[in-house]
Amino acid sequence: MSEVIVTLAHVRAALPRRCSRGLRHWCAQNGVDWATFVRSGVPVEQLEAKGDALIEPVIAFARAEAAANGR
């Protein structure tokens, strides 16, 4: 299985009520480069390592999408 990349689209789909400002703040607090996240996404493992329950639905959504697309 290839590497799963979490994108801003995954966040918006899994957490539709979250705003970009809040996500930008979360990224800053958790050492995730905002520009990279927006431009190309980040590996799911990078987000899992944060151990934050808020991001778990996003990780699950990204993995489910990758599995559905055969990745």
Proportion in helices: 55-70%
Poorly predicted regions are none
Terminal-residue CA separation: 6 Å
The largest β sheet comes out as: 2 strands, antiparallel
Number of strands: 2
Chart the SSEs and their pairings.
Elements: E1 5-6, H1 8-14, H2 20-30, H3 34-40, E2 42-43, H4 44-48, H5 56-68
Antiparallel strand pairs: 1-2
Structure description:
Helices cover 61% and strands 6% of the residues. The chain is mainly alpha-helical and 71 residues long. The protein has one domain. The model has no long low-confidence stretch (mean pLDDT 92).
Short description:
The chain has 71 residues and is mainly alpha-helical. It has helices at 8-14, 20-30, 34-40, 44-48, 56-68, and strands spanning 5-6, 42-43. The protein is built from 5 helices and 2 strands; from the N terminus they run βαααβαα.
Task: Label this structure with key terms.
71 residues, mainly alpha, two-stranded antiparallel ribbon, 2 strands
